[in-house]
Write a structure and sequence with these properties.
30% of the residues lie in helices and 23% in strands. By secondary structure, it is α+β, with helices and mostly antiparallel strands. It has three domains: 86 residues, RNA polymerase II/Efflux pump adaptor protein, barrel-sandwich hybrid domain (OB fold (Dihydrolipoamide Acetyltransferase, E2P)), CATH 2.40.50.100; 87 residues, no CATH class; 220 residues, Chloramphenicol Acetyltransferase (2-Layer Sandwich). The strands form five sheets. Strands 9, 12, 15, 16, 17, 18 and 19 form a seven-stranded mixed beta sheet that branches. A four-stranded antiparallel beta sheet has the order 1-8-6-3, with no helix packed on it. A four-stranded antiparallel beta sheet has the order 5-4-2-7, with no helix packed on it. Helix 1 crosses helix 2.
Length: 437
Amino acid sequence: MATDVEVPALGESITEGTLGQWLKKPGEAVAADEPIVSLETDKVSVEVPSPIAGVLTEQLASEGDTVAVGAVIARIDEKATAGAVAAPISAPAEAAAAATTNPAGAGETPALRGDATAPVAEAEREADQITTLSPAVRRAVLEYHVDPTSIRGTGKDGRLTKDDVIAAAQTQKSAPAQAPEAKAPVSPAPAQAPIQAKAPAAAGERNEERVKMTRLRQTIARRLKEAQNTAAMLTTFNDVDMTAVIDARARYKDLFEKKHGIRLGFMGFFVKACALAAKDVPSVNASIEGDEIVYHDYLDVSVAVSAPKGLVVPVVRNADRMSFAEIEKTIADYGKRAKDGTLTVDEMQGGTFTISNGGVFGSLLSTPIINPPQSAVLGMHRIEERPVVKDGQIVARPMMYLALSYDHRLIDGREAVTFLVRVKEAIEDPTRLLIDL
C-alpha cells in the first residue's frame, strides 16, 4: 500500500516552497523519518522525512517546482522491494560509466569480464553521489571546492557526509601538486549534476552566466525594497570607545569560557546595552500596525547572520532577561546552524529589534536597512585605533562606528540619538549594565 508524502507546514504565513533537491530516487529503500527531499522556503531549507519505511515508488514533482503546503510530492510503498522501481540513468551518466576504464582489465568488454552490469552500476554510483547530496554537504562542497564524484562516502548507502568533504579538502590541500599528465582521467559529470567545474576562460573571452535566484534571495530582495518603499527611513551615527569592553574581555575571557563553555564576545555587551537603552526609549522597540503603535515590554533581538544562501536573522527571544552567557550561547548556536542550513522557520520569525555586525567582514561604516515590521536596526562595524582627544591629550583608542537606522514615522530624531547615546555610554562604561543606569 502506497503512502503519500505531503509538503509539511513550513511556518506561519508560508504557504508554498520550492522543491530544491531529491535525496532519494524511485526504487530506493527509505527508512522511517529519513529525509527524501529538501524544500527551499522564503527563509530556510527544510528536509522532508519519509513517514514510513519502504520504497520510494513515485516522484510527483521535479526539482525547481513550486509546491504548496499539503501537496503530495511523492509516494512510498512499505511492501515494495528496493530496486523494483528502476531509477532512470541519464545518457551522460551511462556514457561516463562506459568510458571509465579499469587498468587491470584494459581492453576487455564487460561481457568478457563476466560483469555485464558494471557500466550501469558505476553510473548509478556516480549519479547517486552527485544528485543525493544533502544541503549541508552541498554547501561544504561549494565552500571547499572539491569534486564530490572523487570522494567515497562513509554515510548510509555510501552517501557523502560533511566530514567526508572536509577530510577530502584537507587531503587535497596537503597533497603535493601533480603535473597535468600525472592526473588520472576523470569521467564527465552527469548533465543534471548541481556542481560542475568550469573551464578557465581563454584570454580575452567575455563570458556570462545566468543563475536563477533562490527563493530566499528573491524574498530578501522583495523585503528590502518594501522596507525602503514603506518606512520613512533615516540613519543616525555615533562612535564608541571600545577600551572598557576589550579590557573586560581580556580580564575575564578565560574564566568565562571555563565556567560557561563559550567565549565572551562583543555581542553580549551590545545586546545588553540595547536592552538597557530600550527602557529609556521604548519607541525603538515598537512597531506600527495600521494606525496603531505596538509597544513591547520584552526585547526579541534579530541577529543578522551570514548563511551560504544569503543573510538570515534568527531571533534571540527575551534577550533583555538573558545573561551574557545565555546570549553568547544562543548566538553561537544560531551562527553554526545557519552555516549548516538547519535553522527552523520559527527561529527566524518575530523579532522587535535587529543588530547587524558588519564589522566581522571589515565594514567601517554603513546604513543598515530596517527589517519590517521592526522600526529600528543597529549596525556595528569594525574596531580600529583612531586618534581621539581625552583630557586635552590626543591618544589612540580602539573606536567603532555605530549606525542606527530607524523609521521616522514612529521614532523622532531626538529619540534615535538618545538611544544611540545610551548604547554608547553603556559600552564605554559596562558597569552601567550591572546597576541598570
